[in-house]
Amino acid sequence: MTILVRFPVEGLTRQQHDEVSRRLEERGAWPPEGLLLHVLFGTEGDLKVSEMWESPEHLAAQSSQLLPALSEAGVKMVGEPEVFQVHAVEQPQTMA
């Protein structure tokens, strides 16, 4: 079951986001198996992250690497991630 996850981060900066990615890469945990899409959006100092995963199990397997990296980079989570079942993913065809 494909899922969409919205991470409840507070005050996220591009530098913190990049630091988490760097730490995960150093540990051989980026990109993780099962991650379909990672999106960083919003305004600097209040950025948001959403991801699409092949399954809840893939996300759970990554959390043991992700949570320490978030803490080390000073990323503040405010609550639990919101998880939604994905019912459809569509990519519009480009016009010729």
Structural write-up:
The protein is an alpha+beta fold. It has a single domain, classed as Alpha-Beta Plaits. 31% of the residues lie in helices and 34% in strands. It has two helices and five strands, in the order E-H-E-E-H-E-E. The chain has helices spanning 14-26, 56-72, and strands at residues 3-12, 35-43, 46-53, 76-77, 82-85. Strands 1, 2, 3, 4 and 5 form a five-stranded antiparallel β-sheet that branches. Strand 2 (35-43) and strand 3 (46-53) form a beta hairpin. The longest helix is centred in the middle third of the chain and has 17 residues, at 56-72. It is globular, with a radius of gyration of 14 Å. The termini are far apart.
Comma- or semicolon-separated keywords:
alpha+beta, five-stranded antiparallel β-sheet, 2 helices, 5 strands, globular
The geometry reads as globular
Q: Determine the number of helices (DSSP H or I, runs of at least 4 residues).
A: 2
- Main sheet? 5 strands, antiparallel
Portion of residues within helices: 25-40%
Q: Measured on Cα atoms, how large is the radius of gyration?
A: 14 Å
Structural class: alpha+beta
Which CATH architecture?
2-Layer Sandwich
Look at the structure and give the mean pLDDT. Answer: 94
Give the uncertain stretches in residue-range form.
Answer: none
How far apart the termini lie comes to 34 Å
CATH topology: Alpha-Beta Plaits
Tell me the strand percentage band: 25-35%
Report the CATH C-level class. Alpha Beta
